[in-house]
Amino acid sequence: MHRSHTCGDVDESLLGERVVVAGWVVAMRELGGLTFVVLRDRYGSVQVVFEGERPDIAHGYVVKVAGKVRMRPPDQYREDWKSGKVEIAVEDYEILNRSVPLPFQPEDDVKASEEARLRFRVLDLRRPKMQENFRVRHEINLFIRNWLSERGFVELETPMLTKSTPEGARDFIVPSRLQPGKFYALPQSPQLYKQVLMVAGFDRYFQIARCFRDEDLRADRQPEFTQLDLEMSFVSDPEDVLTLIEDLIAEIFNRWANAGVSAPFPRYTYDEVMERFGSDKPDLRYSVEYEDWTERLAGLGNRIIDSNVERGAKVKALVLPVALSRGQIDRLQREFQFLWFKVSGGKASGNLARFVRGWDLSPYEGKTVFVFVGSGRPFLESLGDFRRTITAAFLKPERDWAFLWVKDFPLLQWNYEEGRIEPAHHIFTSPYEEHVPLLDEIERAIARGAEGDEIDRLASKVLGKQYDLVINGVEIGSGSVRVHDAQLQTRLLRMIGLGEEEINDRFGFLIESLRMGAPPHGGIALGLDRIVAMCRGEESIREVILFPKTTAGVALFEGAPSDVSPEQLEELGLKVIR
RNA sequence: GGGGACGUAGUUCAGCCCGGUUAGAACGCCGGCCUGUCACGCCGGAGGUCGCGGGUUCAAAUCCCGUCGUCCCCGCCA
Predict the structure, then answer these.
(1) CA at A291, C1' at B70: how many angstroms apart?
(2) Has the ipTM of the complex gone over 0.85?
(3) What secondary structure letter does DSSP report for A349?
(4) Which of A351, A404, A466, A487 has the highest local Cβ count within 10 Å?
(5) CA-CA distance, A9 to A511, in Å (whole number)?
(6) For strand B, which nucleotides have at least one atom less than 7 Å from a protein CB?
(7) What are the per-10-residue average pLDDT scores of chain A (578 residues)?
(8) Can you give the pTM of this predicted structure?
(9) Which stretches of A349-470 are DSSP H helices?
């Protein structure tokens, strides 16, 4: 080995000993006959001192140094280094490799743009902060594997070359040479495999699984990402999964984010979070919520409220504990439609002021009250947008962490944009048994061509055994107890508009497996990139992915995607038309 | 597919509104001096198709059009 110790190892315990260390030159200070060089490796930094002639080294060089460990003068300790009280008096050195001048210095307060960081990713990854990100990622992976293994879970590797399925995201496809003109798809998730593994009797499966979705990117979305995927047999109720997972999640966030959270996490129903926060992933670091003010405000003579309430609309109020200025409210009104009043010095102002005149206004002193009128899911979702906007703009989070489960989603919902019924989660989610009879009604409604709010309201009565884990307003995981009855599964596939042939072609292997004694089962998939990013306080999952893609799906480091040779295309029977 | 921001030295930026002599700064790089530095200091130097293409103009980093790239958002995506 080229070293006896790592740079981080060298400390007072080695005083007077001869050590050999190797690392990158990250700083050089030449003082004529004396040269200070900081060597760094994964474990830390250490100062080495050359006396006499200037060594032939420079920033970025990989250097091996042999010398005696001695104390630095007491007024020159680097308290922020493990090796900060000592230095190595160089007796001998060797250049293990030279370096071209670096495009940027791999320091934590990196000045380089993200583009440069991705282009020269190896340098970027050399930064101690990135080293720590990926060490934590490794530790979390290891912890998950051990934790689940101790509880009887088996890690199984499902295929990457798999079958394209029409539901969900766009597939990445891979041409087949042996079956020209046919394509594999990269898995969007191991969903169907893990279900059939339950039929196979594995009972408890997990996988730290790479997933692929060919959709547009975001700060928290990459075309390939990693899920902790998990499935258990003989679960009857969502709680069977939740109680297990929340222990795991709490332990991860307590260990690596010092979150101070304890299981069980609060449970909310979908209906409840939509009514109170307008979102199925509310950020509960803020406590502001919507109240139903229909009774309080209807019939007071406000024409907007009265005419809408007559038609079945609800009145929702949100009390913001800040008195906003007229200008701030005007700006909000450009994006959102609402009525409002605020109270200062006991007097109400705003377009609702004259309707609340007789009230005891003291609870609203120094606050702004926003009032919305409407009904249906799109209305509630717009309330969620509003809540997100004003909490971000005008409030500080009241706590660092807010973990919750959202349960009892509707099994099916109306897609208002595309005008069709679709699963709220995915089509393999089991409805609660007592709601199955209500499917008849939905089927009849579909048959007579019902749509919009009407069918959404009908569908919302059939609850699925689905659950989402939400942390600080981010959906971290989603899962369900699955349909294990082939007949019911076929029926649900038909309800979302799939024909017999399509069901057979795409899901035949699942239906067939379900017929061969499928145990009741359920599971969850957790976004591992997001979990690690959150534990590290990173805004973007790119900070915890080694070689991420840009928003245009390009890997700047290696230059993917790229052209392929005419020979490769020929073999695959492919022709590029643009 | 749509909206927004950005693109100037190896890097991070200023200059752009209001066009005009040789396009600046800091860090980095190269050379010299310096024995206790740690953002070392001091002296000197090199380094630019101003993303690319077109247009307007006597004249374009600067104004206009297009295009490419990066980031953020909507759509899309659990």
Answers:
(1) 43
(2) yes
(3) E
(4) A466
(5) 58
(6) 1, 10-13, 27-30, 33-38, 40-41, 69-78
(7) 94 95 95 94 96 92 96 94 95 95 90 92 94 97 98 97 81 94 94 96 97 93 96 96 97 97 96 95 95 93 92 94 90 88 92 91 95 91 92 91 95 83 90 94 88 85 95 95 96 91 90 96 96 93 95 92 91 87
(8) 0.93
(9) 377-394, 439-447, 452-459
